[in-house]
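Troubleshooting log. The previous structure file for this entry was overwritten by mistake, so regenerating from the original sequence record. Sequence copied from the archived sheet and checked twice against the printout by T.R.
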Amino acid sequence: MKTLIIYTHPNHRSLSYAFLQKVVQGSSENPKISEVRVLDLYEVGFNPVLVFNEQKRRRDMHADPDLAIYREQLSWADKIVFVYPIWWGRPPAMLMGYIDQMFASGFAYKDKGGMLPEGLLKGKSVVCISSMKGPVLYPLYWLNNAHKVLMKKALFNYVGIKKVKFFEFGSMESPRGKQQMKLEKVYDYFKTVDR
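Regenerated output below.
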């Protein structure tokens, strides 16, 4: 199983970075995971800004040469892991810019003329690891589970990815947030996951 980890946080001393390290550690100890690649969007200077004009058209985004390396990474991966904080009830703008560009028609899905397209990323699985300042039930009760609906239904299911797992951790700025226990939970999952 080839695993691509997409890390989105500007600070390598953050809790998000600690989660990234646990994913890498657990994956390296899992005999079912053959290779791990990490894409740190801030470190590589990924440009999240969409540009459409006479030279760059939206319908050609799936073949944009500037994004070829990122398309290769997504094609290569069996499991795609996203590690990011929840800011204002949603992933950071950097990650949303990556999603806007990478999950393009012609690469991630193909229109068939009906209500739903053909997902071109079938067979892959996704894990989303997110942390937030607010309590864990805040997104569920106050925001109608918007984060999970956005990621699972509006994005991953749309492009053919049906297996989606969430680790959504709340109260992460609290001294009673059980951060170490949650880090170990992520480590244990990646040490033993088999698909």
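Strands lie at 2-7, 35-40, 79-85, 109-110, 118-119, 125-131, 163-169. Archived copy saved in two places this time.
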